[in-house]
UniProtKB/TrEMBL annotation:
PROSITE patterns: ABC_TRANSPORTER_1, ABC_TRANSPORTER_2. This is ATP-binding cassette domain-containing protein. Keywords: ATP-binding, Nucleotide-binding, Transport. Residues 13-243 form the ABC transporter domain. Belongs to the ABC transporter superfamily. GO terms for molecular function: ATP binding; ATP hydrolysis activity. It comes from the Bacteria. The lineage of its organism: Bacteria, Bacillati, Actinomycetota, Actinomycetes, Propionibacteriales. Residues 322-343 are annotated as: Disordered.
């Protein structure tokens, strides 16, 4: 398990040994397995894991919607569910799609809500602006895109000015434009000092907005900490060689032979190295200048050397390696497929 030091400050969410076992006719199913979750104050915390890894169950327990089998939970330092009434006013959550009236405008829907919870109308205008719906608040809800509907749901939770916002898969079912809109809203909230717990199964998407993250698989904690610490320093580099360094047969054959020869040189020098299908080399080295020097001393010249950044998907594969069937990366963990690729 990879766990790095959390950010300073008292955690906003804390669970210890949190466990949820569902019992059915077919036997028992452990949805959450002794989970220690620590969410620091401020910023966006990714709660990541494939479908069925226990994210929603954990969130439901935190909000008092499901009863833990065992373990303890705290929100803002208060034991929950016992002290939930004391803290729930500081928590906003979008766990399921909220019910809005289709024939009312976004603003009318929010005003109904603000009056029902007794907060001033100004909060509606502020919430509309925060989620980027200004200019569209007078349109009927039924005409909103899915992304706009999701942002209105977030606006509804902002009415009570929460210090903690819990969003369960807020970009599910959205197209790339919708994902981007919601992502920008979440980034803005994190910057304004709201602590956001963002659950998602799309790592590439989450990596762009999260300052810290917890990765779960089969209800278990796999890794947790600040994203930059989790991803660590860049130690892998992609190297391409200058054509003609080695001459042999066709250009392609020559490239591969040169790569294999260079890989032998690097490996002998203690630098782990793999030849890629395109004839480039993937070299592990703390200091890239050693790669240049080692190859130069062997008479091999580099055309390029570029750092290869590890991402959360790489991390997930590493922390689940050897855990047996069912922990492979599901196809929908690719952000690109879900429109969650880089901006
Ligand atoms: N009410 C329930 N009764 C029985 N099993 C349940 C119940 N709710 C969830 N589960 C099971 O618990 C496991 C965890 O589900 P959960 O919804 O918490 O995962 P998740 O990580 O949120 O997945 P998703 O991204 O698909 O929502 C799954 O195997 C699910 O089938």
């Amino acid at each position: 398990m990879t766990t790095t030091a959390p950010a300073t400050g008292a955690p906003v969410i804390e669970t210890h040994g949190l466990r949820k076992v569902y019992r059915g006719r077919k036997g028992t199913h452990v949805a959450v397995a002794d989970l220690d979750l620590l969410v620091p104050a401020g910023g966006v915390h990714g709660f990541l894991g494939p479908n069925g890894s226990g994210k929603t169950t954990t969130i439901r327990m935190l909000l008092g919607l499901a009863r833990p089998t065992s373990g303890s939970m705290r929100l803002f330092g208060e034991e929950v569910p016992a002290r939930l009434p004391a803290v729930i006013g500081r928590v906003g959550a979008v766990v399921e799609s909220p019910k809005f009236s289709p024939n009312l405008t976004g603003r009318q829907n929010l005003r109904l809500l603000s009056r029902s919870i007794g907060v001033p109308d100004e909060r509606v205008e502020r919430a509309v602006a925060t989620v980027g719906l200004t200019g569209r608040e007078k349109d009927r809800y039924k005409g909103y895109s899915l992304g706009m509907k999701q942002r209105l749901a977030i606006a509804a939770t902002l009415l009570k000015d929460p210090a903690l916002l819990i969003l369960d898969e807020p970009t599910n079912g959205l197209d790339p434009a919708g994902i981007r809109e919601v992502r920008d809203t979440i980034t803005g909230l994190g910057e304004q000092g709201v602590t956001v717990l963002l659950s998602s199964h799309i790592l590439a998407e989450v990596q762009q907005v999260c300052s810290s993250a917890t990765i779960v698989g089969r209800g278990r904690l796999l890794a947790s900490g600040r994203v930059e610490d989790l991803l660590g320093a860049v130690t892998r580099h992609r190297v391409t060689l200058t054509p003609g360094t080695h001459e042999a047969g066709t250009h392609e054959a020559g490239t591969h032979e040169a790569a294999r020869s260079a890989a032998g040189v690097l490996t002998s020098a203690g630098l782990p190295c793999e030849v890629q299908d395109d004839g480039s080399l993937l070299v592990t080295a703390e200091d890239p200048t050693i790669v240049t020097r080692t190859l130069g001393e062997a008479g091999t010249w580099l055309a390029s050397l570029a750092p290869v950044k590890r991402d959360l998907e790489d991390l997930f594969l590493e922390v689940t390696a050897g855990q047996g069937p069912g922990m492979d990366m599901p196809p929908d963990w690719s952000g690109a497929e879900q429109g969650g690729a880089a901006r």
